[in-house]
Design brief:
heterodimer, A: 440 residues, alpha+beta, Chitinase A, domain 3, Trigger factor, domain 2, 3 domains, four-stranded antiparallel beta sheet, 13 helices, B: 94 residues, Alpha-Beta Plaits, 2 helices, globular
């Protein structure tokens, strides 16, 4: 066996392995012994046919292929041992030539991560602001939610609630037929037909009207697009929205804990702040990671990205799955081919791969460890949110070695991010611009 | 009898392949054929020299057809010894 390492690129080694004829012959002999035992050839008892007969019966090529499929993994193993390579996933093997047998293997190697000087990164958190306008917007929404509708004696205007008797047809087929339907007259409302709301404006109480409306050609519901609908409507009642006054009463109506309007405002602004903080925290974490990624040189085999794509695809599938739906059905439902969706997932998958590699390296360099007791606590936390009858099952599931390991990984990642965030926030005394530093 | 009608097919079995080492080849032949005809047919078909021909009549086997027991057609088997060094490559029927 001759092995030549042609080149190393993207953390992949390109090997070319040439087999000696004797090695191939040996493997052929082996395959013959294995195959002859399970092949029925007329005129022979199983396992008794000579090789020439078997070769003629099964064809020489199939024996050869069988021999190769056995030989290649063994030869590959030997080759990477000889070359002192460490493969992290299955290689892609391609047979280049049959006589003598030469095959090429692309071996994915352990990714190399050259961390920059992450001890001195610095990121300024975005200031959190909750403006008066935001609070007012929320309060305004609350007012609308708690508004009362009172009947009025005047023609219909926009933003009124109208009680209608509707009879309608689309090309002689009944469309909507309802007595006492409630309809909020909002401008540019596409329901039931664009322009319907506008037609109502100006109608008085008990007034009847017949109207014809055409669905636009680009109407989202394809079967209706371009069709004509005729309506016969009668306005039964017109109601106007009365917003509650902004005072202590209103605050109390929302929650009896609030005595005054101010306490409501306070609560709203606190909620907003909390949400903004949460978001800012995640954004900040992402920015910190980005900074670390920027100063790090990562070199990894593309197969890692493919694996990540597989995982993302599986996750999506699981989320989508309600019954035993297959990948094909999912693809049909979103109208995409597998290649398209894989292509679409490639950028996020690449990003995730890089992130996890970088974070893993930081965790290793920073000697971040998670104790067993921490994992136990985490499991307890997860179980707490589960329903009573599922707790036992969940506990059993989470305590399997695999899921413990995955929880450990999650915790390590979390801890690593926390450490980085701490560094990024607290390193005021160090250099402003992080410099790339070669670490061996 | 025309030589082309003599040989029916080569018989390739465990036993017969072992015999090949001794230069002996087995054929199923027409029942009407006799040893000289077989010899002639083999020599002509495979361009070899035949030194001996042994024949065996293979009796028919009883098979059931519905309720009746019937006999399958008996056949004739010929084991042909070639001059040492001559060889026949079988292809058909494999």
């Amino acid at each position: 066996m001759k092995v030549t390492n042609e080149k190393i690129e993207d953390s992949q080694a390109f090997l070319s392995i040439e087999m000696e004829p004797a090695e191939v012959e040996e493997s052929l002999e082996e395959s013959y012994h294995r195959l002859v035992k399970k092949t029925d050839i007329p005129g022979f008892r199983r396992g008794k046919a000579p090789r020439a007969i078997l070769e003629r019966y099964l064809s020489k090529e199939s024996l050869f292929e069988e021999a190769l499929s056995n030989l290649l993994p063994k030869a590959y193993k030997k080759a990477i041992k000889e070359q002192k390579l460490e493969a992290i996933a299955r290689p892609s093997i391609e047979i280049a030539q049959k006589d003598p047998v030469i095959f090429k293997a692309i071996v994915p190697l352990r990714p190399t991560v050259k961390l920059g000087d992450y001890h001195h990164i610095q990121v300024t958190p975005e200031p959190i602001e909750v403006s008066e306008a935001d609070v007012n917007a929320i309060i305004e929404r609350l007012r609308h939610q708690h508004a009362a509708w009172e009947p009025v004696e005047r023609p219909v205007g926009f933003n009124d609630l109208v009680v209608l008797d509707i009879e309608s047809n689309i090309e002689d087929k009944p469309f909507i037929n309802q007595k006492g339907a409630q309809y909020q007259v909002v401008q540019n409302q596409p329901f039931p037909v664009p322009g319907f709301a506008e037609q109502l404006v100006g109608m008085g109480r008990d007034e009847e009207k017949e109207l014809q409306l055409q669905f636009p050609l680009d109407y989202p519901k394809g079967e209706l697009a371009g069709k004509e609908a005729s309506f016969k409507i009668r306005v039964v009642e017109i109601k106007q929205e009365r917003l509650p006054e902004l005072n202590g009463e209103f605050a109390k109506e929302i929650d009896s804990n609030f005595e005054t309007l101010d306490s409501l405002r306070e609560q709203v602004s606190a909620d907003l702040r909390l949400r903004a903080e949460e978001k800012a925290k995640i954004d900040f974490e992402e920015r910190v990671i980005e900074v670390v990624v920027d100063i790090t040189q990562v070199d990894f085999p593309p197969i890692l990205v493919e694996m990540e794509i597989d995982r993302l695809l599986n996750q999506r599938l699981q989320r989508w799955q309600t019954g035993g739906n297959s990948l094909e059905e999912y693809l049909a439902s979103i109208n995409k081919t597998e290649e398209e969706i894989r292509e679409e997932l490639r950028p996020p998958a690449t990003k995730r791969t890089i992130w996890s590699l970088v974070l893993g390296e930081v965790a290793k360099k920073g000697k971040i460890k998670v104790s067993d007791s921490a994992i136990d606590t985490e499991i307890k936390n997860i179980i707490k949110s589960a329903t009573e009858d599922k707790k036992g099952e969940l506990n059993k599931f989470l305590n399997t070695p695999q899921s413990r390991e995955s929880i450990k990984q999650t915790l390590i990642t979390r801890k690593t991010i926390q450490r980085l965030v701490k560094i990024a926030k607290g390193s005021n005394m160090s250099i402003k611009t992080p410099q790339k530093e070669e670490q061996k | 009898m025309h030589p082309y009608e003599v040989l029916r097919r080569p018989l390739i079995t465990e036993k017969n392949t072992e015999l090949q080492a001794q230069g002996k080849y087995a054929f199923e032949v027409a029942r009407e054929a006799n040893k000289p005809q077989i010899k002639q047919a083999v020599e002509k078909a495979f361009k070899v020299k035949v030194t001996a021909v042994n024949v065996v009549t293979v009796p028919g086997k009883t098979r059931r057809v519905g309720r009746r027991q019937v006999l399958t057609q008996p056949s004739k088997k010929a084991i042909v010894t070639l001059q040492s060094g001559d060889k026949i490559e079988f292809f058909e029927g494999v």
